[in-house]
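User: Could you check the structure of this?
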Amino acid sequence: MKQEADIRFHSQTTRNSIAFILAGGRGSRLRQLTDWRAKPAVPFGGKFRIIDFALSNCVNSGIRRIGVATQYKSQSLISHIQHGWGFLDGRFHEFVELLPAQQRIEETWYQGTTDAVFQNLDILRSHNPNYVVILGGDHVYKMDYSKLLADHVEKSADMTIACIDVPLQSAGGFGVMSVDADWRITSFAEKPANPAPIPGQPGHALASMGIYVFNAQFLFEQVIRDHDEPDSSHDFGKDLIPYLVPRRRIFAHRFMDSCVNMASGVPYWRDVGTVDAYWEANLDLTHITPDLNLYDEDWPIWTHQEQLPPAKFVFDDDDRRGQALDSMVSGGCIISGSTVRRSLLFSNVQVRSYSNIEDSVILPNVDVGRNVRLRRVVVDKNCVIPPGMRAGFDPLEDRKRFYVTENGITLITPEMLGQKIHYVR
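Assistant: Sure, the predicted structure tokens are below.
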């Protein structure tokens, strides 16, 4: 009976909630991958976009009222949501609503994360939620938000912040908090120079995931108050949370308690915010047992499904064999007399004869010519790789045309190849 009561409680709580996804950022550390798209719209995992993970978490958790705030070069993100997320049923008050910056209140675009909420207060109020779940649209993870909401309600919190353990040496890039025995937050510092370690764990800090639950009326009051503060930068981490922690009931929620299907027993959460991190997270999916389980029927990742034929591998001659080893190959791909090893190919990639691709991430609609050698590269959407090209073998040579990371990953885009693309990515 207790389990049934919990399910009903979670269902009622999620039905009375609305999710607000902040998806307006560029993600400049991804370099040229975000020249023409916002970070949440960057392809990931062979067939998805990064924002699909936050959206899927909402739907799978029972939160079916979702607003997505967009700003920076949002056309591909808007197109993706329109094509892939129209299955929610408005007759049951389910929706994914796009909320582009449109100067609804003042003649300014979104000035910060709290300002994005402030500028959409009339829309949020019109849905009359009890709770508002604030999410970023630029992280890869699987999380049951209903458990986060239940924790928030059980503790009679004004605000709850989802948190994760991170190594102390990398904690300076996060909001770092301290908590008491009841997990009430006692201090919070945004990107501190000297992060405070977790008591008893000197090598780790408790970091904010940028996932928040608010009592709706409390959130509305606080973003209005923050808007009226002349010295505020209108940011949750920099301004709102430090103000609230000593004054109101602000609690932390451990990601361990709501992470879904941990393949390795460790909560999976990735900020694929650099080219190195993006390459590594994608290639992890090709491993025998990847850290992120995409084969979970109980918690699917939803996305726009193109109607494509299955991947095809042709030619079986000794010097011309179409094959992919320890790799993921998406629909619409043709591997023609070439070898792909330890790589991830998105949809509609064609690899022509006598080529070799290793340890690489190839985004959709790429045409790889004959006799090409690629190793440790990320190839952006719509590239045409000319016959005989080599990349990923000589960093000094690659840097003359492409972007090469400190770890030696080469990023290739159409513009770097002298190819102009005139349509949405």
